[in-house]
Amino acid sequence: MQIEKITDNKKQFLDLLLLADESENMIDKYLSKGDMFVLYDDDLKSVCVVVPIDNETCELKNIATYPKYQGKGYGKALIKYISEFYKNDYKTMLVGTGETPTTLSFYENCGFEKSHRIKNFFTDNYEHPMFEEGIQLVDMIYLKKDLCLSEKLSINKNNGN
After folding, report:
1. What is the pLDDT of residues 87-115, one digit of tens each?
2. What DSSP character marks residue 101?
3. What does the radius of gyration of the chain's CA atoms come to, in whole angstroms?
4. I need a surface site. Which of 25, 49, 79, 94 has the fewest CB within 10 A?
5. Where are the domains of the chain?
6. Domain 2-158 has CATH 3.40.630.30
């Protein structure tokens, strides 16, 4: 497995980015401001984009894995990598998503906890109704991860505590 930071021609990964955010207009709003990472395991498996919010917080704006590779740990490996990558620069990482059990469970298993919601985000910002797992997406559910805590857990685990 290999993870690379992409600095040029980020749009070449648009097909994968569109799996997580089906609006190219929305992707265009954050793609140039964010750091892009891609995960390869022989071939391309996953991509993500992380954007700075302020001096203490960054946001995972997009993470996607090709459907045939989902459930194999690639997304989780990418989140672990970016959490380590940003732990010295930010205290907190946010991620916003729709209110679907599978997606919320995935993020919680990656160390995120529910933070807040933005009412009507999907209905106000997308031209057509969006559905995931048969559920219409209405509110954006934000989750947060304490990046400093990730480091402390790793240190404690390594020290046998």
Report:
1. 999 999 999 999 999 999 999 999 999 99
2. H
3. 16
4. 25
5. 2-158
6. yes
Residues paired with 96 in a beta bridge: 142
Mean pLDDT (whole number) for 60-83: 96
SS3 category, 104: helix
- Helix residue ranges per DSSP H, 4-73: 14-20, 24-31
Please name the residue that has the structure tokens 């919601």: 117
Q: What is the pTM of this model?
A: 0.88
Sort 29 into a burial class: Cβ within 10 Å, 0-12 / 13-18 / 19+. middle
* Rounded (5°) CA angle 128-132-77: 125
Q: Which helix (H) or strand (E) holds 79?
A: helix 74-86
Neighbours of 84 (CB within 10 A): 13
Quick one: tokens of 98? 């729709």
